[in-house]
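Model: You mentioned two targets. I'll fold them one after the other.
Researcher: Yes, keep them separate.
Model: Target one:
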Amino acid sequence: MVSDIADASLAYEGVKRIEWADRTMPVLRQIRERFTAERPLDGLRVAACMHVTTETANLIRTLQAGGASVALAASNPLSTQDDTAAALVQEYGAEVFARSGTDREGYYRHIHQALETGPDLVLDDGCDLVNTLHIERTDLLGTVKGGCEETTTGVIRLHQMAREGVLRFPMVAVNDTDTKHMFDNRYGTGQSTLDGIVRATNTLLAGKTVVIAGFGYCGRGLAERARGLGSRVVVTEIDPVKALDAALQGFSVQPMAEAAAHGDVFITVTGNRDVIGGEHLRVMKDGAILANSGHFDIEIDVRALAELSVEVHRGVRPQADEYVLADGRRLVLLAEGRLVNLAAAEGHPAAVMDMSFADQALTCAWLAAEHATLEPAVHEVPKAIDTEVARLKLASMAISIDTLTAEQEDYLHSWRIGS
């Protein structure tokens, strides 16, 4: 099948950027060397729906080193790097179906094209590929051995499919590993989201009131970094435990209906829809900035924003649209309500994605070997994989840790030893 990319001539620039990212991905690089020798994916076809970035390209290279052929579709049109797509096709031999800025029709066409390769394994970033398989391409389900999901949103959808008894093959929640959500979500999303907001607006965050919807790992990372830049941070939550955690960390906790009137910057990271709705938009101050860092563009009700507006000024800055309300107030929406860290910036630093994609690669190898023993359900990544990724990352940082003595091991595994 012929790839669908924007411009093959961008391949040289893409290779340079992929190699730059590879410099700070030592764990994935070690796994690539191991895969080259062991070939755990020999002869397997992989279909992936992921952000087409330089970091993803290094994951694709690793899967290929393990013997897999890979077809890649974009999980978000605004995050697609056309030079990376070109390099993957022209220099690394992958099939890529992704163009920056494509519309919804093009987005799903690309997913279908990736699925046409008849995958043995699938990698998903939001569950759209798996969803399409189960609804529109059921003819391909028989060959799929299993897959991985890397987002909170996608894992939520997979658990619902499993509860309803419709999931047809084992899926592994790579998102839920410690080396993914503790680092990718907290440190990666925390840094890259604020990077995207600053690039899109050139705003000074010091002294601003930043309202963060959701206090999971992503929200925690955002709150920590916004506070570090001098912002007053307000957290909105529906979970009393997470809200209490935010309060005990010194953040103000309020309902969105209260926070909406005095926030300067709003960031959604919940995985749910309509977190900022019309009732909130109506009371926001002039110049309020709206950004989403949840996976899908449903957390900010963009339709309600458009209905409230009498004018829309597109592209007042790159990835920034200004909506003028009837009373003259202006609200600035970033990246069309899509992932601001990938649309307005470059996404997570490669050093963070090193761990997430190492989890993906090792889990793919594990699935290739163990899929026949797994039920069609949502499975955890084996603890040994999570631990190995952390160990390799520490080694790449020249950090050593203690090991248990034989006596300590015995103590931890015995109930007979008293105080």
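Model: Target two:
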Amino acid sequence: MDMHSPTEILQTVRKDQVLLVRLNNPKARNALSEEMIELITSVLEETAQSKDIRAVILAASGPAFCAGHDLKGLTSHRQDDDQGHNYFSYLLTLCSDMMQRIVELPQPVIAAVEGIASAAGCQLVASCDLAVASHSSRFCTPGVNIGVFCSTPMVALSRNLSRKHAMEMLTLGEMFSAEDAHRFGLINRVVPDGQAEAEALNLAQIIADKSHVALKIGKKAFYEQLEKPQREAYRYVVEVMAENMMHQHAEEGINAFIEKRSPCWDK
């Protein structure tokens, strides 16, 4: 994939085995419009089939990472015969499916946050496997301030943060600092302003050097076991790990460790 025209609202560029996906609609604060959601979904679908991409970075242009849903676009549908209910359900489902595709993508996904991640933008960060944010980045789920509880962002937040921290964000609707987000468990690292994408790329390149087979197996198993009771989770991952041990990558990796050399993964 090559970098698209800078006039397009979503850009992609390959950096060796890493795919950088950049939201590029700064005038709209990179809002998750219907078009933006469809474009991200399309890129994720294509990436899931790639044998060459080992990691994905989600970044953004401009002062905001993502301001959430396009509220003006949503409000325009209040003129529909059903006052917008069907469209609201359609768009929220479309967005939720896109978030779930990030979780189900075989490759790890890293958010590189500069600026504000609000509402569904915060959900986007929480849906990624890892997240790096600049020092001046801010995070919020402010729906409660305008009479709309951030119920869809709540799904991703409640699966990444402790219950108390998730409810703090959801019920206060306040802006939280990058340090708070790190303390809450929403992001992995805080870096100087302007360095989030570079740090995300550093992490992605480290990941790209690992066994893509092990990462694919492990990412899927991680999210599967989270939803199971502990005893059932252990039964599940025992089978997953036993099957993983049978793969060529496991044999090569273990032999390389014993022989004190770097493993050579197949393509």
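Researcher: Noted. Anything on target two?
Model: Confidence is low (pLDDT under 50) at residues 1-6.
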